[in-house]
Specification:
Layout: E1 6-10, H1 15-25, E2 29-33, H2 40-43, E3 49-52, H3 54-62, H4 66-72, E4 74-76, E5 78-83, E6 89-90, E7 100-104, H5 105-118, E8 122-124, E9 129-135, E10 138-143, E11 148-151, E12 153-156, H6 163-168, E13 176-187, H7 191-194, E14 200-205, E15 210-215, E16 221-228, H8 235-240, H9 243-253, H10 260-266, E17 273-280, E18 288-289, E19 292-294, H11 297-300, H12 309-326, H13 330-359, H14 363-379, H15 382-390, H16 404-407
Parallel strand pairs: 1-2, 1-12, 2-8, 5-14, 12-19
Antiparallel strand pairs: 3-7, 4-7, 5-6, 9-10, 10-11, 13-16, 13-17, 14-15, 15-16, 18-19
The chain binds flavin-adenine dinucleotide.
C-alpha cells in the first residue's frame, strides 16, 4: 500500500496532469487544481509549439499518452545549425532513438488532461493556490475563491513562478530572467525556405539575435524568436504591447539575416504570439518540506535551449509518484525522489545555461562563435553530450527498492 492515500496536485500545465495520472496509477487518489479557468479562450496560456525529446516520449509512454501525442505532433528528423545566414550544418543526433516531436502546446495540454481524467483524477479549474495549512499527517490547501482541499501530500507543479516553492522555503530563489523575450510566428513558404524538407528544424544564430524555424506539414514555416532585451516582461505585459510594435522590433533585430528578415517581415499580427521573458531556475536548495514537494519548472526549469523543460517535468512527475508508491513513509519518499532527480536535472540545466549565453552574445563573442561553433559541431561527441539525456527511461513498474540502476 502506498505511503500516501491522497494527493493534491497544484498546477495543470504539463507536470501536473502527468503527476496526477502517475499517482492514480500508483493507487493514490489524486485531485488537480489549476489557476486558469476552463474556458478555452482564456485557458490557452502561452501557446506556441513544444519539442519533446525521446526521453519525454518515454515518460509519456508510461502514462499511456505517447501515441496520442505522436498523432498530434510533427516528427523532427533533421536538425541544422546556421550561423550568420551561412548554409546550415547538419547537427549530429544520437543513434537508435526516435525523432523529437514538435507538438502544439494546447494540444499537449488537452491530451494530458484527458489522460488524467480517464485515470480518475478530479480536475478543478480556476483554483489558484494561495496558502497551505500543514499538519503532521496532511495538508490543507487554500484557494483564492475561498475554497480549500485536504490530502496526505501536496505536489507543487505550479511552474516557474511557483507559489508552493515559496511555501516550502520562503528564502527559495526566484526564476532568473535570461535577458531574452520569446515569440512565435507563422509565414508562407518562399524561395528562401522552399528547399527545406518537412521535419527539418533549423537553429539559426542571426547577426543580432537567435531564432529557429521549421517547415510545417501544411507547407508553411513556423518560427520562434529569442529577442535580446534588458527589460523583463511577463507574458501578460508582452501581450499588452501592440503587435505592430513587436513586428517593428523583430524586423529590426533580424533585418540582416536570411531567411530571418523575411520571416520577421511577413509575420502578421494575426500569427504573432508573444511569450514574454524566458527563464531558468537556479538550483533550488529545498525540493520538499514536510508533506509538500515540487516537480517540473517549479523546481528545475532549464533554459529553453535544452529542449528538455517539458520532458524533465514529466520524468519528475512520474518519479515522485513512484517514490510515494514504493517508499515506507513520506519523508523517505521525497528524499528518494530528490536523490533520483537532482543530479540529472542540474546537469542538463548547466548545459542549457551555457547555450543561452551564446544566444545573446556581444559583437566580439559573436565573431568568435562563428569560428568556434563549426569546429564544435564537427568534433562533438553526441553520445556523450546528448545520448545520456535522451536515452533516459524510468522503469515505473519495478519497485524502487529493486531498481538498482535508479538507486545507484
Ligand atoms: C517560449 C518557450 C519555449 C519552450 N520550448 C520548449 C520546448 O521546445 N521543449 C521543452 O521541453 N520545453 C520547452 N519549454 C519549457 C516548457 O514549457 C516547461 O518546461 C514546461 O511547461 C514545464 O511544465 P510545468 O507543468 O512544470 O509548468 P507549466 O507548464 O508552467 O505549468 C504550471 C501550471 O501551474 C499553474 N499555476 C501556477 N500557479 C498556480 C497556483 N498558485 N495555483 C494553481 N495553479 C497554478 C499555471 O497556470 C500552469 O498551468 C519552453 C518554454 C518557453 C517559455
Amino acid at each position: 500500500m502506498p505511503t500516501a492515500q491522497t494527493a493534491l496536485v497544484i498546477g495543470g500545465g504539463i507536470a501536473g496532469p502527468v503527476a496526477a495520472t502517475a499517482l492514480a496509477m500508483a493507487g493514490i487518489d489524486a485531485a488537480m487544481y489549476e489557476a486558469r479557468p476552463a474556458d478555452p479562450a482564456e485557458a490557452n496560456g502561452i501557446g506556441g509549439s513544444l519539442a519533446l525529446e525521446p526521453n519525454g516520449l518515454a515518460a509519456l509512454k508510461i502514462v499511456g499518452a505517447d501515441d496520442d501525442v505522436r498523432a498530434a505532433a510533427v516528427p523532427i528528423t533533421r536538425s541544422v545549425m546556421s550561423i550568420a545566414s551561412r548554409p546550415g550544418r547538419e547537427m549530429p543526433t544520437p543513434q537508435g532513438l526516435g525523432p523529437r516531436q514538435l507538438v502544439d502546446r494546447g494540444a499537449l495540454h488537452r491530451i494530458l488532461r484527458q489522460r488524467a481524467d480517464r485515470a480518475g483524477v478530479r480536475i478543478h479549474d480556476a483554483k489558484k493556490l494561495i496558502r497551505v495549512d500543514e499538519r503532521p499527517d496532511g495538508v490543507m490547501a487554500h484557494f483564492t475563491d475561498g475554497t480549500n482541499a485536504s490530502a496526505d501530500v501536496l505536489i507543487g507543479a505550479d511552474g516557474v513562478h511557483s507559489t508552493v516553492r515559496r511555501l516550502i522555503d520562503p528564502a527559495a530563489p526566484d526564476a532568473r530572467y535570461l535577458g531574452l523575450l520569446g515569440f512565435e510566428g507563422l509565414v508562407d513558404d518562399a524561395p528562401d525556405t522552399a528547399a527545406l524538407a518537412p521535419g527539418t528544424m533549423t537553429f539559426a544564430f542571426g547577426r543580432r539575435a537567435y531564432y529557429l524555424y521549421w517547415k510545417r506539414p501544411d507547407g508553411r514555416i513556423g518560427w520562434g524568436a529569442n529577442l535580446p532585451s534588458p527589460e523583463y516582461m511577463s507574458l501578460k505585459e508582452a501581450r499588452a504591447v501592440p503587435a505592430k510594435d513587436w513586428q517593428h522590433r523583430l524586423r529590426t533585430a533580424y533585418a540582416n539575416d536570411e531567411p530571418g528578415a523575411r520571416l520577421a517581415a511577413e509575420t502578421t499580427s494575426g500569427t504573432l504570439q508573444a511569450v514574454g521573458g524566458l527563464h531558468i531556475m537556479p538550483p533550488v536548495p529545498h525540493w520538499h518540506r514536510g508533506r509538500m514537494v515540487l516537480v517540473g519548472d517549479a523546481v528545475h526549469a532549464p533554459s529553453n535551449s535544452t529542449g528538455q523543460g517539458a520532458s524533465l517535468a514529466m520524468e519528475s512527475a512520474i518519479q515522485v509518484a513512484r517514490c510515494l508508491r514504493d517508499m515506507p513513509d513520506v519523508p523517505s519518499a521525497f528524499a528518494a525522489y530528490e536523490r533520483l532527480r537532482r543530479p540529472r536535472v542540474e546537469k542538463i540545466a548547466a548545459r542549457g545555461a551555457r547555450i543561452s549565453h551564446a544566444k545573446a552574445p556581444g559583437p566580439i563573442a559573436q565573431r568568435m562563435m562563428r569560428l568556434i561553433l563549426p569546429v564544435m559541431l564537427a568534433t562533438m561527441n553526441v553520445e556523450k553530450t546528448m545520448a545520456a539525456e535522451q536515452r533516459y527511461t524510468i522503469d515505473f513498474d519495478t519497485p524502487l527498492q529493486e531498481d538498482n540502476k535508479a538507486l545507484a
